[in-house]
Amino acid sequence: MKYDVIVIGAGPIGSTVARFLAEEGFNVCIYEKKKQVGLPLQCAGLVSRKISKLNPLPENVIINKVRKARAYSPSNISINVSKEDYVGYVIDRVKYDQYLLNKAIENGVDVFLGHKVEKINHDDAKVYVKNKIVKAKFVVDASGYNSKAVSKLIPAIQYLVEIDNIEKDCVEIHLFSKLLPGFAWMIPLSKKLARIGLLSGNKKDLYRIMDKYKVKGVLEKYRGFVPVPEFKKIYNGRTILIGDAASQVKPTTYGGLILGFSAAKIATEVLKEAIEENNPKILKKYHEEYYKKYGKELRIQLLIKKILSLMNDKQLDYLFRKIKENNIEELLSKYGDMDKYSKLFKEVIKKNLSLLIPESVWQRTWNFF
Ligand SMILES: Cc1cc2nc3c(=O)[nH]c(=O)nc-3n(C[C@H](O)[C@H](O)[C@H](O)COP(=O)(O)OP(=O)(O)OC[C@H]3O[C@@H](n4cnc5c(N)ncnc54)[C@H](O)[C@@H]3O)c2cc1C
């Protein structure tokens, strides 16, 4: 058997976990169905600065830096949040995916591009690819939202557009009941270029947002999918799921890079032990440790998303108005964190601000949970 681990998919998470394992001295290969990774672009490219603690981020991948966020209600009431220093990067995902794959190759990972995996035998780590069966000790399914393990998807549309006078360091989002649990975004790349997109398959909703920005021109169009975030079993026999394949996305924004890279660290430690002892039962630890570390945060984000998605446009407007009237923007600026909502959530509960949510919405939220 040539490989300790076969990784399926050379997306950012697959390339990262493959590299981490190779750095530990294991023989690793990646099968990737595309001939060129990263294309077509399926990402808004917004990540928190914390990313560089998890994975190297070269300067030439960073397109823009942001420190403010503005959220709009259905009738355009805005909430503003800002930090002194930059908190997020807007990155070139195509370049970044290629960079991460090259780093994996530099560290000794064998990469087979244009090789689509047709089937995985989880119990004996066999992978069916190009009329061949390849066997390893373990398999990592990092095949993104295409993975057979992903059951529910939300469509996304995103355009690269030209707009005049963009506030370059401010990300904007738009909430209205028709889109929820999705939302629309404007991510600035420069003073004149932005990515405008939404989680919905409906182009009309995108045009509604583009009209707000008086878009001057559309340069590129992309479509993609995000997995619906859910708690699920992320190991099976000799296989682990990771990244979008494991639905490891933030329930509020559906961003997947930070959680996926964090999961890659946990997966590497667990796989190391499992390979050394040749024991698939050890993979359970990956599931347990991932949910031990992120379960609470994911539950809070799921709750926030559920509350918002049960509100109609009038109730959303009311909530935004109350946030403004009660100076809650300051609290949001102080405790807001792109990746962790638990601190802010605690403050909201402490200050009894949950009273701003209509009673009927709470009722339906608890019924749901
Ligand atoms: C419109 C949009 C905007 C987004 N914006 C953000 C954002 O701003 N910030 C953020 O953090 N996240 C964002 N995301 C989510 C982010 O893009 C994903 O979470 C991330 O790409 C997940 O990485 P991955 O490696 O798990 O999967 P992917 O990037 O999907 O990579 C999977 C790889 O597996 C390959 N593959 C699939 N099936 C097979 C097979 N059978 N055999 C071999 N290879 C296979 C694919 O070709 C692909 O290269 C966005 C997503 C969308 C759709």
Task: Write up what this structure looks like.
This protein has 369 residues and is an alpha/beta fold. It has three domains: 3-44 and 92-150 and 230-295, FAD/NAD(P)-binding domain (3-Layer(bba) Sandwich), CATH 3.50.50.60; 65-89 and 154-227, D-Amino Acid Oxidase, subunit A, domain 2 (D-Amino Acid Oxidase, Chain A, domain 2), CATH 3.30.9; 299-368, no CATH class. The protein is built from ten helices and 18 strands. It has helices spanning 12-23, 51-54, 93-106, 203-212, 257-277, 284-309, 313-325, 328-335, 342-350, 359-368; strands at 3-8, 28-32, 46-48, 62-66, 68-72, 78-82, 88-91, 110-113, 117-121, 126-129, 132-141, 153-162, 170-174, 184-188, 193-198, 217-227, 235-236, 239-241. Strands 1, 2, 8, 9, 10, 11, 17 and 18 form an eight-stranded mixed sheet that branches. It has a seven-stranded mixed sheet with strand order 6-5-13-14-15-12-16. α1 packs parallel to α3, α1 (12-23) runs parallel beside α5 (257-277) and α5 runs antiparallel to α6 (284-309). The termini are far apart. The model has no long low-confidence stretch (mean pLDDT 92). Flavin-adenine dinucleotide binds at residues 8-14, 31-34, 37, 42-47, 116-117, 142-146, 156, 158, 197, 224-226, 243-245, 249, 255-257, 260. Flavin-adenine dinucleotide binds next to α1, β2, β3, β12 and β16. This is Geranylgeranyl reductase. GO terms for molecular function: oxidoreductase activity, acting on the CH-CH group of donors, NAD or NADP as acceptor. InterPro entries: FAD/NAD-bd_sf, FAD/NAD-binding_dom, Geranylgeranyl_Rdtase_fam, Geranylgeranyl_reductase. It comes from Methanothermus fervidus (strain ATCC 43054 / DSM 2088 / JCM 10308 / V24 S). It holds the Pfam family Pyr_redox_2.
